[in-house]
Amino acid sequence: MSVVYDRVALIGLGLIASSMAHAMRRSGLAGEIVGTARSTETRDIARELGFCDRVVDSAAEAVKGADLVVLAVPVGAMGAVAAEIAPELAQGATVTDVGSVKQAVIEAVGPHLPEHVHFIPGHPLAGTEHSGPRSGFAELFDNRWCILVPNGSDAKATARLTRLWEGMGAHVDVMDAPHHDLVLAVTSHAPHLIAYTMVGVADDLSRVTDSEVIKFSAAGFRDFTRIAASDPTMWRDVFLTNKDATLEILGRFTEELFALQRAIRTGDGDHLHDYFTRTRAIRRGIIEAGQDTDAPDFGRSGQHDKA
Ligand code: NAP
Question: Can you give the pTM of this predicted structure?
Answer without folding.
Answer: 0.91
